[in-house]
Design brief:
Layout lengths: L3 E4 L7 H7 L5 E5 L13 E6 L17 E3 L8 H11 L4 E5 L6 H16 L3 E5 L3 E6 L4 E4 L4 E5 L5 E7 L5 E4 L18 E9 L1 E6 L6
Parallel strand pairs: 1-2, 1-5, 2-3, 3-4, 5-6
Antiparallel strand pairs: 6-7, 7-13, 8-12, 9-13, 10-11, 10-12
Length: about 220
């Protein structure tokens, strides 16, 4: 099945970068104020979801004819969480989350936890913000090409043991990273190499920092 792209309302500084990562057959789900990004993204909306407390519901123009799920304002799930669950119900198992990390730290952390949620279900997921790409490392190793100048590994699930890093400035073997001692920040792929990360027990949040940003 095609990939599902979830668009939230957080700021997107570089539309060109995001557009380069979009595919023609992506299924786009715009969440509430994520609709403000629609004119700038090469992503057709297949579904609109939201309680429309931060953006008016489309009532005219092309967006008015897109399937729309109107949510109550008082609910357990945010618009973004609902959108992910709805895409899961429709059978999607590959996700790209954009516009979901920004000024609101509470929403940002909640949306990063969606990566854990999707990983638990055995789904593939990445999250883009203005500075980086994020994914969960668990059952399968992850690779970081040297087009990313830096990468960080954070324990966000409570257990992360027998960690291995190769092809990087700071290698690891059989290591453990705990939630209260996050020493896996700002590593670097070796020039001309692809760094490789694996964890045998638990999960890690891998953040690959883009070349246009600093440490």
């Amino acid at each position: 099945m095609n990939r599902c792209v979830i668009v939230g309302g957080a700021g997107i500084a570089g539309y060109d970068r995001v557009n380069r990562m979009l595919r023609e057959n992506d299924f786009g789900v715009y969440c509430d104020s994520g609709l403000r990004h629609l004119p700038h993204l090469r992503l057709r909306p297949g579904l609109i979801v939201g309680d429309f407390d931060s953006h008016p519901r489309p009532r005219s123009g092309p967006e008015a004819n897109v399937e729309t799920i109107v949510l109550p304002r008082e609910k357990d799930d945010t618009d973004t969480v609902y959108a992910v669950k709805e895409a899961l119900r429709r059978g999607y198992d590959d996700f790209l989350l954009i516009g979901v990390a920004g000024a609101r730290l509470d929403h940002t952390l909640g949306n990063i936890s969606l990566l854990l949620y999707l990983d638990t279900l055995g789904k593939k997921a990445r999250l883009l913000d203005n500075y980086s790409e994020m994914e969960i490392v668990s059952r399968e190793p992850a690779e970081i090409p040297d087009t990313f100048p830096w990468f960080s590994l954070l324990n966000v699930s409570g257990i992360a043991r027998d960690i291995s890093i190769t092809g990087a400035k700071y290698p690891l073997s059989g290591a453990e990273i705990t939630c209260d001692y996050q020493y896996g920040i700002s590593n670097e792929p070796l020039p001309g190499q692809t760094a490789r990360v694996s964890v045998q027990e638990g999960r890690l949040l891998l953040i690959k920092v883009c070349a246009s940003t600093g440490k």
